[in-house]
Amino acid sequence: MLALLVASAVGVIVWTSQSRQHRTAETQSRQQADAQAQAVADARAELARRERVDALHQRWLRGDGAAVLGEARTQANAGDTRARVLLGQMLLRGGAGVPRDRVAGLAALEQAAQQGSVLAMLVLGHAYGTGIASAGPRPEAQPEQAEHWYARAARTGDARGLYALGQLYAAAPPALGPRPLAAHVALDLAARRMEAEATTGTMERDPLWTGDGSATLARYALQRVAQQLSPAEREQARQTADAWRAGLPLPR
């Protein structure tokens, strides 16, 4: 009798444990399904936001800037980082019915960059590098500021940022001086990433980014920079590129 009671008790314990495990598995399965559904919904929402901003960008280019400005500002104020980048570009450049406001344009772009927008970092680097961001009536490049923003973009591992930074160093503006080794590292990394993106089909052209860059251009620029280095320096640059990972500082 005692043995039967013990066996019954053990059976109840086992059944309870298995039932609990089954409920836990069901809960985890539902949570995973909910997480996947939320990820899909978030991706669709992000795509919709991007398409809205890109449509505004196209309207601005067609000369409808006065109407687009208010919509871009509304979306930017609602927290859309991409809209904030577009707003910054519109205000910084002006034209097509949009009055130029350099201060407000830079502020919008810097706010987007602080939110982590690599696109904003690239646009800021380009604006300072070409002189669009200058306060005077004539464009005046600010290489140090261009380096700051390109380097921030490059440090994320973005191929466009690496290419732009490498090209800036290769150009050796007087404010920065010659930096062929740093240029070699950045261009080498840019070429590697662009080649990988081309192979995997993940390379895309962003209509809000007007800069150039391709694996072919990066390799060509790399060859020109390599001519300024000794064999030992080229090997040092290659090893530096091999060891570099996104998030780490790049050589200057």
From TrEMBL:
InterPro entries: Sel1-like, Sel1_AlgK, TPR-like_helical_dom_sf. Residues 230-252 are annotated as: Disordered. It comes from the Bacteria. Transmembrane segments: none annotated. SMART domains: SEL1. This is Sel1 repeat family protein.
